[in-house]
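Tutorial, part two.
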Amino acid sequence: MPYERPRGTRDYLPHECEERRAVLERIRSVFESYGYGEVVTPAFEHLELLVAKAGEEVVDQIYAFTDKAGRKLGLRFELTTPIARIVAENLSLPKPIRFYYIQPVWRYEEPQKGRLREFWQAGVELIGVPGAVGDAEVLAVLINALRRAGLPSFKVHVNDRRLVEALLHWLGVPPELVPSALRVIDKLEKRGVSYVEDELARMVANRDRLKRFIELLSSDPLQAQLPSELPAAAREAVDALEQLLQELDDGYGLAEFVKPDLSVVRGLDYYTSLVYEAKTPLGGELGSVAGGGRYDDLIRLVGGPQMPATGMAIGVERLIEALRAEGAPAHRSRRSGYYVIPVAPSFRRYAIRVAEKLRAKGEKAVVEVMGRKLASALEAADKLGFRYAVVIGQREAESGVLTVRDLEAWKEERVPLELLTGS
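Running the prediction step on this input gives:
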């Protein structure tokens, strides 16, 4: 019996890789247009670094192991923490720092549609810019990357954790349980209102306030009638959201893509204020295709100085699935290249020389090596998506004038070798 791939992983065949590459190059072009430079981090890090402010649930999902020297390591589960380490180790980097990445990450969670144990993230981190100015730039990068990728409909749901934490304190959640309460709220869309209400009921005694809190979760934080007893931090959070929307509207013209949403909190503990998720109308695991927020304390927690930082990440597999589901093909394959067909084995080496000349010119070229008859070879070239078939027999080898068939227009002409290959 053949081996199977590990659960939660998948293979990508050539046509799928072509599709992924097309999407990622569009995203990359947006990242670089904003001045972000690519970084690559190790697949594994010291486990102590990865668990810093990751959150209890995420810590349980880390692929952790001990190496042969007894070091405790783990596969990275996201890229923000490794990039925070890079910044903490390289304090001389000119500010602001604009990094982007397109890399795989690993999480041990239950595989399902749009959720794998090995998956790719494409994201940016902006280090050194505080407040709405930095957050608006990163959100603009996210929105324009999704638009450039071809996603037809989405909204970025934004919130500020300071506001939710203030509401949790008002609700009566003990300070030590606030991180757990945030993780419960993060499951609202997946598990439903009843789950959130039941879990929070274990933490608080005031059922009237709990009912009011549940109602607030489905509201716009800028329009909601918030309790008057909330501390100043809650007002600061509302003001920050208003400034962000103003920046996105006046500066970038992108406010229409943003929706304030009190239920968005994100599952990672390192977020300090702004958090957001890009959601499609598809719902379920394909509903959220990207997320991010501000993490002003993380660089200090991994050994560097206090430094403002904000970033986002796009789930590549989810985005491609969403593009397909929305009827927006991630990539339309075009015919390209030359399929060089020797009509007999004696012309194979001549065919190879022709193919080499085409490759030297920068063209894709493949030589028919299966010994198929001409009709079968032409059929194979057509199925493989080649634009041209080059037929080589006695006449072509002697004259240097090749028979070239356009497999898209299905017409044939005779072309001198020098003209075809530019040599």
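Residues 232-252 form the longest helix (21 residues). In part three we will examine how such features are distributed along the chain.
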